[in-house]
Amino acid sequence: MTRRQLLVTGVVQGVGFRPHVYRLAHELALTGSVTNTAAGVVVDAQGPPAALAELVRRIAADAPPLAFVREVRTQDVPEDPALTAFTIAASTSDAGPRTTVPPDCAVCAACLRELFDPADRRHRHPFITCTDCGPRFTIVTGLPYDRPSTSMAGFAMCADCEREYLDPADRRFHAQPVACPVCGPRLWATDGSTRTDGDEAALAVAQQVLATGGTVAVKGLGGFHLAVRADDEAAVARLRARKHRPDRPFALMAASL
Ligand SMILES: [Zn+2]
Ligand SMILES: [Zn+2]
């Protein structure tokens, strides 16, 4: 038995890294823990030397799609017979060097499939996300990256979401922004005086504003999109004047070519 401590640095938080290490450790029958610290991901692993070497290799080689491993620093520490399982430990926020804030990431193919599946419980859920996609930088309020350090802190998970969050086999295992229409944020719309709450109702307000030549500011990852009806000359002219873009093309959205 050997026990080794690993410090993994790079883009390793908010990208499914702890679940990745957890699955590897279980596959290699190692004991110990993985945790987020302000310096990066710290792995404490104990087992046969060959399995530990394989862990170090695959931590980087098989990293999740959104992760970027800059360095894996290893250090042997005295073995501990009391380590009998491998766990994801609570994050610690110590002083010292800061890890990288994970970037926002566009919705992934698996989430898109759910989004448009009428049978899925996240059908048309505007805030759909998983371990491989969704908001990170936009919602982070502190490090290490964990739900209490995001703007999702105020949303308690429902039983279904919690089951996904706790299941190592689920693609939302330890996805910090996990939520659904039952427990997550909802759409709301305002014209500055009246507020309309609820996904469908808020969407209907936005559609109405667009249809009648108004401008809608859609809050998304990292900022706002300003939208007007592309075939409404007056609405487009007003947007051009406000944005000081008399000639440059705007992005155009259409249901199909
Ligand atoms: Zn996804
Ligand atoms: Zn939920």
Question: What report would you give on this structure?
Answer:
- The chain is an alpha+beta fold.
- The chain has 3 domains: 2-88, Alpha-Beta Plaits, CATH 3.30.70; 101-185, Alpha-Beta Complex (DHBP synthase); 188-243, no CATH class.
- Helices cover 25% and strands 21% of the residues.
- The protein has 6 helices and 9 strands; from the N terminus they run E-H-E-E-H-E-E-H-H-E-E-H-E-E-H.
- The protein has helices at residues 17-27, 49-61, 109-115, 159-166, 199-211, 233-243, and strands spanning 2-11, 31-37, 40-47, 68-77, 86-88, 188-190, 195-197, 216-220, 223-227.
- The strands form 3 sheets. Strands 4-1-3-2-5 form a 5-stranded mixed beta sheet, with helices on one face.
- The structure holds zinc ion (ZN) (2 copies).
- One zinc ion is lined by residues 107-108, 110-111, 129-130, 132-133.
